[in-house]
Amino acid sequence: MDHAADAHRTDLMTITRFVLNEQSKYPESRGDFTILLSHIVLGCKFVCTSVNKAGLAKLIGLAGETNIQGEEQKKLDVLSNEVFIKALVSSGRTRVLVSEEDENAIFVESSKRGRYCVVFDPLDGSSNIDCGVSIGTIFGIYMVKDDHEPTLDDVLQPGKQMVAAGYCMYGSSCTLVLSTGTGVNGFTLDPSLGEFILTHPDIKIPKKGKIYSVNEGNAKNWDAPTAAYVEKCKFPKDGSSSKSLRYIGSMVADVHRTLLYGGTFMYPADKRNPNGKLRVLYEVFPMSFLIEKAGGQAFTGKQRALDLVPTKIHERSPVFLGSYDEIEEIKALYAAEGQKK
Question: Start and end of every Fructose-1-6-bisphosphatase class I N-terminal domain (predicted)?
């Protein structure tokens, strides 16, 4: 990579330019989606700045409230949630918002209402804030076709109905990964320009991977197929090398690595959490959407993750996502277990 030449390039593909180019492919487009996305990007930039100076600004630590999931809220959680809600409502393009931090869905008032519903986790992995580990924002977007009064049914749809999904990771660099339904692209924030620049065009997840990612502390509570797959990763019987375990405990960071390097990310059901722990709408669906659009698969242990039909906005599900061939192996193990029963 010629960094000197890069420094003098003026044809940088910014996220705004990229989305406008995509929009031009649809002559009937009114630009609503582009406006919505620009507000999400602004929210990501704001949170990135806040994360970077959190230690100095005393934003780290508990805010003294507990969110709907029973997790004690951190100040950055609260701030990020407010930032995204304000950014999304002020876009004038949203109608229903679902946040991990709020017990109830937010129905946008009619004067500011648009045709998009956004589900999001404003700051995923927030328990890692104090130790400087990568954290991120996850979002998914649904579009409502007709102009009815907004209801929960507008967001209680299978993930395959999403029109776009993405995440923004706040780590050594600020990276935004986005899919608008065709392909997956990664953008990195250039602090000197204040712009997200296309750095990872058309991301494709490798068909096989050498990494597995799971919280092995829960191993004693796993079901047989999960235990069998992890055993195979560590002690392969075909003479191949063992896979490496990498688990950060921040979903955005773990999925980002899986997307780029291949392998599997798993948060299976276990005896203590028979429905898994990750939330369907704003964790499982957006990440599954991205993985599938990059050529991978996402599976719940019973079905394709994006076919799930949620009945509650904070519903949970197990998930196995990653390289196509690796998830095929997991599906085969579950199918074999089903035949035994």
Answer: 13-201
